[in-house]
Amino acid sequence: MVSFSKIALLAVAAQAAIIPTDSPAGLRIRQAGGSQGTVTWDKYSFYVNGERVMIYSGEVHPFRNPVQDLHLDVLQKVKALGFNTVSIYVHWGIVEYERGKFNWDGVFDLQPFFDAAKAAGLWVIARPGPYINGESAGGGLPGWGSRVEGQWRNSNANYTAAWQPYINSVGKIIAKNQITNGGPIIIAQPENEYSGFMNPDGSLNPDEDKEYERLLLEAFDGAGITIPTVCNDAWIGGHFTSVDVYGYDNYPAGFDCANPITSWPDPPEWFYGGQRGVAPNTPNSIVEFQGGGFDSWGGYGFEQCYKDLGPEMVRVYNKNVYASATHLLNVYMIYGGTNWGHLSNPGGYSSYDYGAAIAEDRTLREKYYELKLQANFLMVSPAYLTSAPGEVQKFPTSGSNITITELWDEVGQKQRFYIIRQTKPQEFINSAFKVTINTSVGQLTVPQLGNAAYVLPSQDSKILVTDYPAGPVNILYSTLEIMTWKVIDGRTVILLYANTGESGEISILTSTSRKVDVRRGKSSTVTFKQTSSTLTLQVVVDHETVIALGDDILLYVVDRVNAYNFWVPDVNLKQDIPVIIKGGYLLRTTKFSGNTLALTGDTNGTTVFEVIAPKSAQAYTWNGQRLDTDLTRYGTQEGRYRTKTPRVDIPDLGRVKWKYINSLPEVSASYDDSKWVTADHTYTWNKIKPTTPVILYASDYGFHSGNILWRGHFTATGGENLFNLTIQGGNAFAYSVWDNDKYLGSFTGAPAPSAHNGSYTLTPWAKGSNHVLTILQDHMGLEQNWFGGEENFKSFRGLSDYSFGGATPTLKMWKLTGNLGGEKFADWARGGYNEGGLYAVRKGYHLPGFDDSKWVSKSPLKGLTGPGVDFYRATFTLNIPDGVDYPMAIDFGARTGNSYRVEIYVNGWQFGKYVDDIGPQTSFPVPQGILNYKGENTIALSLWSLEDSGAALESIDLVIRKQIEGGISVTNSPAPNYMERANSY
Ligand SMILES: *[C@@H]1O[C@H](CO)[C@@H](O)[C@H](O)[C@H]1NC(C)=O
Ligand SMILES: *[C@@H]1O[C@H](CO)[C@@H](O)[C@H](O)[C@H]1NC(C)=O
User: Fold this and answer.
1) Does 534 contact ligand 2 (Cβ within 6 A)?
2) CA of 612: how far to CAs of 80, 382, 489, in Å?
3) Number of other CB atoms surrounding residue 64 within 10 Å
4) Which of 200, 197, 223, 228 is nearest to 210 (CA)?
5) Where do the domains of the chain lie, and which CATH numbers do they carry?
6) 3-class SS at 968?
7) Which part of the chain is the Beta-galactosidase domain (predicted)?
8) In sequence order, which residues have a C-beta less than 8 Å from that of residue 946 and are 6 or more positions away?
9) What is the dihedral of CA 251, 256, 259, 262, to 10 degrees?
10) Which-ligand-closest: CA of 162?
11) Suppose 684 and one of 468, 695, 856, 881 were both cysteines; which one would form an S-S bond, judging by CB atoms 3.0 to 4.6 Å apart?
12) The whole model's pTM is what?
């Protein structure tokens, strides 16, 4: 994903050719192993196993969800949208935290994700980098990269040697799981947004490094990756075209959370022309398309951003890209997840909710249901896949101005899709007008009956079809949108929708006279006209109207919100049993065996089920229980289900028994830092050379995340009265300084500054006296790069300059620490990024199982009376029954504006970083599996006060975000207990 802050083969086993169907010159033509499947393409679309398919995909990052079982939950939700693919990034920096030592174990193992994708019935686009961006620490690049000199993301030999082992390692995992080996992966993407380039001197270079691209593709091949490769050019710039299929990104709605909707740019119309200009022989592929937005420290919070990036955005901007005949569309993000354990870059905070269709706590937003309507339509509209945009009409109406693109099916030579949209969707003006369309019976102006108008509200777009076959039914046109259709026991069921109160028109080519029989809803809302060749109906949309047109056609005309309740399951993971289910919150799976249709899913209230299925299905179950149904007047089955969400007691975290220790022993006179790393380098690999006598850059010594502590030992010349420093930690960072045990002051931080020049008054030092300056700083994550050749991710964390006023003391030494062990981190299960450098964390006191009985009792609501760092622990028990999904969060209530920072550890996993005076995040979702829903939990908090007046939490609560019946069963992630840490300090 683009950060707008910066603009934002060896495996030739068995043979099945992967050859682009048109074999355009210049593309690689390779051999693929295995016979389970192939992935090919032509200028219109991809084919998987010989079948032409729309790739409708959602981006999910396995690394942002460290509970392996929850992948299936998210992936079933993606599948239920009607999507067929998920796309993933892999974060190199996490899995190779120490150079040469890969951690693919436990929560970092990708296999459970690929298995879950397969179980859910989804294909995967694998995007392993090396660079990924993704608002992640270092953009995926490892911290040790700071010590690899020269430019990154080009063919610099130092960089090549750095990435090759990783691509080889991850490449083999991808190869093992590609479709030709029976796995779900169909496409692989090297690099990410490799679109801008820099010279060593930092000036822009117009040329990409084609040698780097060649090396990457060679490494993919070498690892056995035989599926097609794509790129995602950050804009249609024609970069990295040596991949098989050129792809690009687009984030058309912008990221202006402050001004929802009114700040929307006009939807762009150049996608198709732009893509054809670069790669006319491959499908129009948008490898990242805006599915929400990110938010930064001091930002607006995702609920506010969602107002800008909600269902309206999906109606306007997604439909706009269909107007460009987009046949691979990956929505970034469909589920964002959490930047647990310091995984964010400094431009973001713990939540990576993204305002996505599936929220961070895995609940479903309205946008989810809007996307479901659209994806399902495209999945039953194969002619869309061979359509290309033709004429674009733009015209004013008595209301707003309208843009209509006609898509024409170049292969079938019959169907047209009209994408009708607001030219200025950011304006709040509705329109009602007539539309002129081309059909097989000539030009028509619709709606035809009476005085009705075609209605397009503001922030809306609609798709009108002509000569559209729904099985044997030929729809001449429909101004009502189609969600889906199925031929069930010889009867064609067509599901149509519009907004409540709008009238819509559908015309069917039929030479037989048909009885129009309104079986549900008010017959007064339906008017019709039959001619010798057509039957045209007009319906005023009101909740749900079901109309039989003879025995073989059944129309459901529903309002949008009611349409949200319909699901089109992939029965037994094969689209060969036609079923439509009206349900509730979520339909996960549908299995048909014997005469039983077994449905699983989630409900959040009384749910009316309707089963529209072949008669061979005679019994229905919901999550294993029999669903009692009655026959409707139109031959479907209807039943009612009352959701059971039992009340549960959860602890009041304000009142649990909290234990505490001081986590800043470093400022006591007797503190011994002899086990710390000595900052004794006089050379840095970094391009920014400091003025300090020794290098004080944390990454040079292997510390890349969390809090960093510095201790400078000096002998006074006498009269030192001022300490000046230049220190850097990333946006919203802060630091505090002590002279021996005397607090000198803090920089409390602000959203933007990533560095600070500070001046602190010293009580004049006496000649010959010994002083230790202790600096506690926050590290907000490694920066991302943006351009190839840029070295932003090496931005130092630490001091580049310091000086004294009054006199200059003699430096004895500088010591530093971050997480215990640095790159040789202490906790393999939770990974290198999880820990920071605070005393209590270095000791492992954040882990479950530590005996804190000798600690003092004190609550974080009491807190500190001055500057410093407290560390708190408490345990509590949960007993949440099976069969429900009750996502929880740790909530700090309203912000006070005081300067303090909290890190939250739940069963040893860092699941939140709260900065009270910067915000915006105050509520921190912690998933089941990190939280033990059946037994004991340990919560630990560091509380860093940056003010003389001290700091205390206003409140702390464990809250249940939503009560849902259903869910999936979750095994807890490994949460190894405390063990005394040898050589800890
Ligand atoms: C590669 O690394 C070595 C050792 O740090 C350094 O001397 C050399 O200049 C680097 N090469 C480039 C192209 O930066
Ligand atoms: C429609 O477009 C015309 C011509 O560009 C412009 O003059 C008019 O103001 C627009 N109407 C609205 C409602 O935006």
Assistant:
1) no
2) 17, 22, 10
3) 23
4) 197
5) 54-379 (3.20.20.80), 388-570 (2.102.20.10), 589-602+606-642 (2.60.390.10), 665-817 (2.60.120.260), 838-965 (2.60.120.260)
6) coil
7) 384-566
8) 734, 736, 746, 748, 867, 899, 900, 901
9) -30
10) 1
11) 695
12) 0.96
Q: Are 228 and 18 in contact (CB under 8 A)?
A: yes
State pLDDT tens for residues 199-220. Answer: 888 899 989 999 999 999 999 9
The pLDDT tens digits for 736-751 are 999 999 999 999 999 9
Helices (H), 335-385: 366-379
User: Rounded CA gap, 268 and 289, in Å?
Assistant: 13
Question: What tokens does 226 get?
Answer: 């035989």
> How confident is the model over 490-495, as a mean pLDDT?
98
288 touches 321 (CB < 8 A): no
SS3 state at 11: coil
Q: Are strands 553-559 and 491-498 parallel, antiparallel or unpaired?
A: parallel
pLDDT digits (tens, 9 = 90+) for 715-739: 999 999 999 999 999 999 999 999 9
| 693 three-class SS | coil
In the set 96, 191, 193, 610, the catalytic residue is: 193
Query: Whose alpha carbon is nearest atom 12 of ligand 1?
Result: 150
381 lines ligand 2 (CB under 6 A): no
Tell me whether the omega of the peptide bond preceding residue 447 falls within 30 degrees of 0, making it cis. yes
- Tokens 């800890």, residue? 984
What span, in angstroms and rounded, lies between the C-alpha atoms of 319 and 322? 5
- Angle formed by the axes of helices 157-176 and 210-222, nearest 10°: 40
What is the per-residue DSSP string for 270-324?
Answer: -HHHHHHHH-TTS--EEEEEESS----TTS--HHHHHHHSSHHHIIIIIHHHHTT
Tell me the per-residue pLDDT of 848-892, one tens digit each, with 9 for 90 and over.
Answer: 999 999 999 999 999 999 999 999 999 999 999 999 999 999 999
> Per-residue pLDDT for 70 more than 80?
yes
**Cα–Cα distance, 189 to 133 (Å, whole number):** 13
- pLDDT tens per residue, range 767-799: 999 999 999 999 999 999 989 999 999 999 999
CB of 149 within 6 A of ligand 1: the answer is yes
Ligand nearest the Cα of residue 427 is 2
Q: What is the average pLDDT across 243-267?
A: 94
